[in-house]
Write a structure and sequence with these properties.
Blueprint (H helix, E strand, L loop, with lengths): L1 E6 L5 E6 L5 E5 L5 E5 L26 E2 L5 E2 L3 E4 L2 E4 L7 E2 L12 E7 L4 E9 L8 E10 L2 E10 L3 E2 L3 E2 L2 E2 L12 E5 L1 E7 L5 E6 L11 E2 L1 H4 L2 H4 L7 E6 L8 E5 L4 E7 L3 E5 L21 E5 L15 E2 L5 E9 L1
Antiparallel strand pairs: 1-2, 2-3, 3-4, 5-15, 6-9, 7-8, 10-11, 11-12, 12-13, 13-27, 14-26, 16-25, 17-20, 17-22, 18-19, 18-21, 21-24, 22-23, 23-27, 24-25
């Protein structure tokens, strides 16, 4: 194992871990992002920007830590302990922590540890929300070994705040972000799906059985993405939160490519996952020198249901000073 650090620009630094069997992974201080995950056959399975400066501005949140509130807060409004708040941003519904969310924050490389089998990279930041009181100390801890990547998301606040963190990596198991996901199948151990309205805010909580969203048995994703029901909605594909079944003995999600015969297995402590199928790709170039094609990757975002602070059916997203927020996501390639 070889661990190296590189100053990319005056604001961006990278940590790269190279394993003896040929795979490697790269992290950035901006958003504590996963910017590259290259397998032993030189296939990069996560989307990353070609120009590192693109991580500093709005885009697709490629590989970034998203928060303090992943997903959307309806109209940017909420009430916490009787106090009303209005969050302003470029989006009508406060999205992924807003214009100054964690995705664009420079984290400090807290530590790097290694043994014969794995490396542990820890990033930390003290974050002050634009409107909410207090300072939130956030740690993002990556544990890496060949074909395995673990993420721990830890937060502690000095005042009552909202917290719903996730990683926003986009996956294509063939490493081909110039074509759609026609070779990909997905299985989700989910009992329900949260439908969305025209503003992509959660509406009806529906059993997945006998619906488009039934991924309880692995099936191709493209027929679902291009189904007229979704294509005629604002989502223009899958952009929905799936509630995991109570039986957590199975993996939460498996993504599989029939072309590369490669699978990605995900386990997490979160109660659900948002799936987004690159329905509105950015024009910014990826590592291949081209913009992401329509539906060329799947963003897999384990998290609480967004807008929970305004929807009593779900976790309210509130983090109090007496509490520690701690969740994990584990990815395994086979």
């Amino acid at each position: 194992m070889v661990i190296s650090q590189k100053q990319i620009t005056d604001k961006i630094t990278a940590v790269r871990i190279q394993f003896a069997q040929g795979s490697s992974i790269e992290f950035l201080n901006i958003g504590a992002a996963i910017s590259r995950w290259t397998l032993a056959d030189n296939t990069n399975i996560v989307a990353g920007y070609q120009n590192y400066n693109d991580y500093l501005t709005d885009g697709m949140y490629l590989g970034a830590t998203v928060g303090l509130t992943a997903g959307r807060i309806a109209k940017g409004r909420c009430v916490i302990d009787g106090n009303a708040y209005q969050f302003a941003s470029k989006n009508a519904n406060f999205l992924h922590g807003g214009d100054h969310g964690l995705s664009f924050v420079p984290f400090i490389l807290d530590s790097i540890a290694e043994n014969q089998e794995a490396a542990i990279v820890t990033y930390t930041t003290n974050y002050h929300h634009d409107w909410l009181p207090g300072v939130v100390t956030i740690k993002v801890r990556y544990t890496v070994s060949p074909n395995n990547l673990g993420v721990e998301l830890i937060a502690k606040s000095t005042a009552t705040t909202l917290c719903n963190l996730t990683n926003h990596s986009y996956f294509n198991l063939d490493g081909d972000f110039t074509h759609d996901l026609r070779n990909h199948c997905m299985q989700i151990n989910a009992s329900n799906v949260l439908l969305v309205d025209d503003e992509i805010i959660g509406s009806e909580l529906l059993s997945v059985r006998q619906t488009l969203f039934d991924f309880t048995i692995s099936k191709p994703v493209m027929p679902v993405i291009v189904d007229p029901i979704l294509k005629n909605q604002k989502t223009f594909g899958i952009d929905h939160w799936f509630m995991f079944a109570l039986n957590q003995s199975e993996p939460n999600l498996i993504l599989y490519s029939t072309k590369s015969n490669r699978s990605l297995t995900i386990k997490t402590s979160y109660p659900g996952v948002t799936i987004y199928t690159t329905n509105y790709p950015s024009e910014k170039h990826l590592q291949n020198g081209k913009a992401a094609a329509l539906h060329s990757a799947i963003a897999i975002e384990p998290q609480y249901a967004s807008n929970g602070i305004n929807d009593c059916r779900f976790h309210d997203l509130i983090l109090r000073p007496s509490e520690v927020y701690h969740h994990f996501i584990h990815y395994q390639i086979s």
